[in-house]
């Protein structure tokens, strides 16, 4: 059984897939405690479902074939691997949102990984598992930095250069209500790296505190 928080359909808001209708399967529990966490409700399990029950529930949205597994931290639960397989066999495109601290070694190639590298402003700056860089496919996977301030921006730029990630899909996002999008846009334009500025789209469409969107 998989420990869950919610299953819902919404608009994908935090990757290069932003704007597309997407089914979200939100796993319970997280091994980190970022100080800006907007998903604290994921720390405690709400309900459990089998893979068969999950597949049956998401069939309610017949027209949506994009599924994101998010959390919490989904890779804490080993049952995620048979779920990947079942979703893949059922024809879904799978996105995995992960906080970067768990090994990506066993994640199948058909899964699009969206991987956080936590910056100092999060309070979890040493959580990234460096060996994960070996398992990132630069053509499809995405590396995300959620930035609180200029120190975080400089850290992210220096990380990208040091680890030679310039040819990967890189997303710079702001901590909501902590760093103004316009400020980040100015910094990106004045820097010498090509990254994608990404805002948490669902927070602009709906109430930023709303769950299940
Ligand atoms: S990794 Fe995500 S869910 Fe976990 S504490 Fe950080 S922001 Fe919250």
- Give the spatial strand order of the biggest sheet: 3-1-2-4-5-6-7-8-9
CA-to-CA gap between the ends?
A: 24 Å
* Strands, total number: 9
Q: How many helix segments?
A: 5
Bound molecules: iron/sulfur cluster
Q: What is the chain-wise order of helices and strands?
A: EEEHEHEEEHEHEH
Look at the structure and name the CATH superfamily: Aldolase class I
Beta fraction: 15-25%
Radius of gyration: 17 Å
In the CATH hierarchy, the third-tier topology is known as TIM Barrel
CATH-derived architecture = Alpha-Beta Barrel
Average pLDDT rating: 95
Global shape: globular
Domain unit count: 1
Sheet/helix structural class: alpha/beta
Word description of this protein:
By secondary structure, the protein is α/β, with parallel strands linked by helices. It has a single domain (2-205), classed as TIM Barrel. Helix content is 22%, strand content 24%. The chain has five helices and nine strands, in the order E-E-E-H-E-H-E-E-E-H-E-H-E-H. A nine-stranded mixed β-sheet has the order 3-1-2-4-5-6-7-8-9. The model has no long low-confidence stretch (mean pLDDT 95). It binds iron/sulfur cluster (SF4).
Structural key phrases:
alpha/beta; 9 strands; 9-stranded mixed β-sheet; binds iron/sulfur cluster; 22% helix; 213 residues; TIM Barrel; single chain
Gist of the model:
The protein is an alpha/beta fold and 213 residues long. The chain has a single domain (2-205), classed as Alpha-Beta Barrel (TIM Barrel), CATH 3.20.20. The protein is 22% helix and 24% strand.
């Amino acid at each position: 059984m998989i420990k869950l928080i919610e299953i819902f359909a919404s608009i994908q808001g935090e990757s290069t897939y932003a704007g597309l209708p997407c089914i979200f399967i939100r796993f319970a529990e997280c091994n980190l405690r970022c100080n800006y966490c907007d998903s604290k409700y994921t720390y405690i399990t709400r309900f459990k479902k089998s893979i068969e029950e999950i597949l049956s529930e998401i069939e309610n949205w017949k027209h949506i074939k994009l599924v994101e597994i998010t959390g919490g931290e989904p890779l804490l639960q080993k049952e995620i691997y048979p779920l990947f397989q079942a979703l893949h066999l059922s024809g879904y495109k799978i996105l995995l949102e992960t906080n970067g601290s768990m090994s990506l070694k066993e994640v199948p190639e058909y899964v699009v990984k969206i991987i956080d590298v936590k910056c100092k402003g999060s309070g979890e700056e040493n959580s990234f598992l460096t060996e994960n860089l070996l398992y990132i496919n630069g053509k499809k996977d995405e590396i995300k930095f959620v930035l609180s301030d200029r120190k975080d921006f400089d850290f992210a730029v220096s990380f990208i250069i040091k680890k030679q990630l310039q040819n990967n899909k890189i997303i710079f996002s702001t901590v909501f209500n902590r760093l103004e999008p316009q400020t980040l846009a100015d910094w990106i334009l004045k820097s010498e790296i090509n990254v994608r500025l990404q805002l948490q789209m669902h927070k602009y469409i709906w109430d930023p505190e709303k769950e299940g969107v």
